[in-house]
Here is the input.
Amino acid sequence: MKKTLPETQVKAQAQDLLNFIDASPSPWHAVNTVEQRLISLGFISLHETQAWQLKPGNSYYVIRGGASIIAFKVGSQNLTDSGFRMIGAHTDSPSLRLKPNAAYGSDGLVRIGVEVYGGPILATFTDRDLSIAGRVNVRTATGFEARLVKFDNALMRLPNLAIHMNREVNDKGLLLNKQTGLPLIFGETEAGIAADQQFLKRIAEALVVEVKDIINFELNIFDTQKGVFWGANQEFIADSQLDNLASCHAALTALLATENQLSTCICALFDHEEVGSESATGASGSFLADVVSRVAISLQLSEEARLQAMAQSFFISADMAHAYHPNHAAAYEPEHHALVNKGPVIKTNANQRYATNADSAARFITLCERANVPYQQYAHRTDLGCGSTIGPIVASNLGVASVDVGSPMWAMHSIRESAGVLDHSYMIAVLKEMYKS
Here is the structure.
């Protein structure tokens, strides 16, 4: 069943997504963007080092490691009877990360050494207007503090090799050696200034500190081109990091729109999904389990009652899905084409690369029907390796019923990805329905 959504609402939600992504070129910026929206709507900041005193009806959030955040609204119903309604997504995206000693001089140029983070399509980083964003630790009178930095102008570039020296590029594709083919050009060397000092000087100026006060950094390469609408009727969007900031935005938007909730509603946004989630801030860590436990403790639930609450809970792992690309039909399972602007995709894998089972899929389908939103089913080709999500990780850690879903998109893990305008509103609508269920 297809829902007729107001065009102004659909466009506004898609534009808000593009604004959200463009303000969040690193996981640390993504969490900061989320935090500012939470603060503006009265969410109360919690700290893991302090005791929590929660009240039904109130809204809270907690940050771990700067790049993971969990926001929640305490329900009015007894937690044992209602359980938790949880949506999870991830703040990180495949990219290039600067090495600790990033800048070096070579042939009159300052070049920047990078590592590959996750599984980006490396060729898409060539000939783009690149810049850096992330966090920098600077010395203070009492020790050090992390500060966000983001350069809006193009600072770096990865120029392609001319076809005259790579005649087979159109037949065999662009192959980039990860060690020798990825260093970025930052600028020309300056007489009397070491390359690393030349680079750090730009960061210090942006942060209004001295170079000597910079201890270290975690910096992400991003494309400075802003997100856009495209297509004959502007029915598509293109931007970086749609995987998976689109899911983060949809989950956050749904939570912020939820009022008078009966169940306790959680929006959990994790770092490090693209590299396996095995970290203190990733979905394999204890972050979500700790928050769930502390909510139960603050509400004075016994261990027996907490376990009852978990049995009543439901988790949606929201991560983007592979949209069918007609130019590459052979890459897809013939009976499972997920089409752009045709609704959320339920992702299934027999080997538990996704957390979906028949019961959790039926539950999500019911939510779609209540929200009057269409849905699609997706399974990967059996002869191709299937990616995974935080879904199976959270399901096994918490022992809760879980489903994997996502909006269909093209060019996943490209520096420039595409998706459907209507699909984003569909996803928000069904996630709203989940929170109030």
Observations:
- The chain has a mean pLDDT of 97.
